Amino acid sequence: MNNMVDKAPKTENKASKATYPTYFESFDYAQMLKDYPLGDAVSEQFTGMSKGELKTLQNTRFMQVVKRAWDIPFYQRIWGNAGVKPEDIQSLDDIEKLPLISKADIMDSVEKYPPIGDFHGLDGIPLEQRPPLVFHTTSGTTGTPQPLLFGPKSREVQSLLVARSYRFMGLKPGATIQSCYGHGMINGGHYIREAVTKYTNAMFLSAGTGVETRSVQQVNLMKTFGVNVLVGFVDYIKRLADVAKEEGLVSGKDIKIDMIIGHLGMESRESIAKTWGNPELFDWYGVGDTGTIAAEGPDHSGMYVWEDAQFLELLDTDTNEPVVPGETGNMVVTCLYKDDVYPIIRFNTHDITQEITGDNTLNLPFKRIKGFMGRSDNMVKLRGINIYPQGVGPMLDERDEFMGEFICEAIRDDSGRDEMIVRAEVSSPLAEREALLAVYSDLLKRKIGIEVKVALVGEGELTPLTQVDIRQKPIRLIDSRFK
């Protein structure tokens, strides 16, 4: 009997050693809310802040992230191969000593250390001390899906920054938001849902893509539940407007959208707004690895970079040297808050933008960017001219018969000369399209700088190629040159 009693405490000790923190126990949630303000607290903290004060804040967070990164084999390997030592990085001013990383480096890590690589920093944490994780992947449409891992602190900051952006734009209390972001293994829909439900008081409809909730059902959800805010990728938002019209639903009457928060890029705002009864449109930018980087403000004067959380460099696409403010460059991001799982330092998104120079009317210390202008790794160079397929559609928006859907195909003829064919959907009858070819060719030559071929097709004919009905980001380039 005594022996049985003696063994009891040992069992309890083993159990206690096997415990681990729950999600909100694994970091200081209250401190996070103080460090990363939301709502009115954003203007209270940052309005009138000097660039020097902002840099001091950035520097403290940068050094903490760098300290964490030195514990991780991924960064030890990449920085070591570049000849960087810990003592070389004393402040944010030393950031250019660190090599860039990109998705290719992450996937190389996954290949060498399957299935989730060695970039996250979990391997050095005993199992009983590891924080809970949020795990997603990229879509994998171009190959093996990339793992995306989030620690509780960095996940919450990412969600908060989305909500900060929405509220900064002017999201009304008690709004009803319908989200067209996809779910499944990809991050988008889950991340937006967490942001809205935790950090706003909006009612949230997680409709997802047209695959998850049929487009016809989506527009009827908007009518039934009085949706007034629509969020998602703009290509599908435009598609939903067509579906609503086909269903006999009148924008502004049956569906009263007063705010669209999408990834507008260089799209024509006027054409998007017109289809939805002229709501106010807002742009924002981020990628799966980093979360929200910048958001358009109520002044509609570019997108403000959340520089208390993200350090953004714009680098020349060829030399990786900083560009002059106002010139186009790759967005390279350092997440100043990711000091738990998967630190991100000098991550080259390969997304192109340019800084908006001059003061802003909101008296905020943050830099502003123009928005997503295309991808440098999706660029086609024809006769010395860089063409970003994502930007071709907006060039065609001045034509009334252009229906918004397009795709570019890069080809190489028998002589080895590279050409591009721009295929566009138009409302014009087949008999009239031949006469329009020269008009479209001249328009593109004027805007791009060189002549490209044009093919005009009817509504819906490009859907099998663009996959706009099933993809969050439609295909805009087919490169047939090397097949």
UniProtKB/TrEMBL annotation:
Pfam families with a match to the protein in the record: AMP-binding_C_2
InterPro entries registered for this protein in UniProt: AMP-bd_C_sf, AMP-dep_Lig_C, ANL_N_sf
Coiled coil: none
GO molecular-function terms, A-Z: phenylacetate-CoA ligase activity
Domain AMP-dependent ligase C-terminal: 384-481
Keyword annotations of the record: Ligase
Organism superkingdom: Bacteria
Enzyme Commission number: 6.2.1.30
SUPFAM superfamilies, alphabetized: Acetyl-CoA synthetase-like
Protein name (database record): Phenylacetate-CoA ligase
Native source species: Paraglaciecola polaris LMG 21857
